[in-house]
Design brief:
By secondary structure, the chain is an alpha/beta fold. Helix content is 43%, strand content 12%. A 7-stranded mixed β-sheet has the order 1-7-6-5-4-2-3, sandwiched between helices. β4, α11 and β5 form a beta-alpha-beta unit. The protein is globular, with a radius of gyration of 25 Å. Bound molecules: pyridoxal-5'-phosphate (PLP). The site of pyridoxal-5'-phosphate (PLP) has 15 residues, from α7.
Amino acid sequence: MPNTSDESLDPQDWPSLRLQGHRMLDDMLDYLATLRARPVWQPIPAPLRAGFAQPLPQEGRALEEVHARFMQEVLPYAVGNAHPGFFGWVHGGGTPVGMLAEMLAAGLNANLGGRDQMPLEVERQVLHWMRELFGFPVTASGLFLTGTSMANMLALLVARFRALGPAVREQGLAGAGGARLLAYTSAGAHGCIAQALDLAGLGTAALRVIPMNDQFQIDTAALEAAIVADRAAGWQPFFVAATAGSVDVGAIDDLNAVADIARRHELWFHVDGAYGALAMLSPQLAPLLAGIERADSIAFDFHKWAQVPYDAGFILVRDGDLHRRTFDAPATYLRRDTRGMAAGSPWPCDFGPDLSRGFRALKTWFTIEVYGAARIGALIAETCALARYLAERVAEQAELELLAPVALNIVCFRHRAPDIDRFNAALVADVQESGRAAPSLTTLRGQTAIRVAVVNHRSGRQDIDALLDAVLTLGAARLAIPPQ
Ligand SMILES: *Cc1c(COP(=O)(O)O)cnc(C)c1O
């Protein structure tokens, strides 16, 4: 018999692992403490990329060696969303507390699919907080997922189950009479809503895309007119997804108006609040979300505005029983009991397609426990204040032009120039490659826009100033290039 402790993957020499572990922790804390001194992003050198296409290593190497490689070859070439100058997309910045909690979760290696264990109570605690935050009843269910893309899809599946009943789980859409189902969302909705229709078997053609008003919100009159016309034509409208914090401009649909329409026409009222829903944590911003408490389901991410490290998406469903019946499945090895490890039913695996699940709840619980809801709400409000500051500074510059109203934390503008769309696309790449700041590019009503999303708790006025300075100096340099 081999000595099992020698054969395991645990070290023979714990003290040296401990030492190396401390070094790794120090390196990461140093990284977080000195972010502003680094480039936000830098291109990956070709030889470095090529070094990551090696054959499967048969022999291992020292942890120290692999860690050194991580520090030199991986860490400097990430997207940079931890950096205060990152404004490209709605990405959270992460926190040291979240990082440490993630380490604890990995050490415990809990599988949150089910069984009677305290980690599940941590997840239920977060669910309890979210019911409270959104004014949902105690019978509402919730589940951690990878992100809002998944959460939107699960919401659609619960709505599909409500529309077609248990038959859809066995007979599929055709057998359950689902061929005429229609869903609704706005032209400003995230692409994952259409993808959810595709994945749910309804097809993207079953999504009616409603135009936006001049505030980039769903045109509610057009929404209602479409539902009425579709029903008259023999279709079966069943689902509407409103957006709270749109990807392009941060617009919030009129949630009460959408809720009224959903009620009048008996549609499932879903809110894609990927990042915007957690504005509820700010007493100043919460009124903008009025009506969210009437939703049948809400999808959102802790990894965006709440700064929990990736990934930590969440779905909240008002009718927890309906949610469970959409997904639960009998399996003998998943049998339940009132005692032993099989107690504590229902389990998370009854509420979604994942069986094995990581302990995403722990880093979320730590983040909320350590920082408190009020402080997270305050930093969310601060990112919106920074966006307004940027919008004011843009308005002062003759070279720049705002392209959308600033509803929350996203500012879209452009630099004036000949061949303006191509110029701004090139300018965004110039700024990204300079490492000084990271805005992104979008298209608003056919116009190419520089998009700045302020999400990171580390960003301050100095970072907005640095971004603006980079846009103006690199813009002037680009304007000075003689036409070819
Ligand atoms: C980010 C985002 C999504 C997608 O969420 P993931 O967590 O990336 O899957 C969906 N909708 C909106 C409005 C978003 O901002």
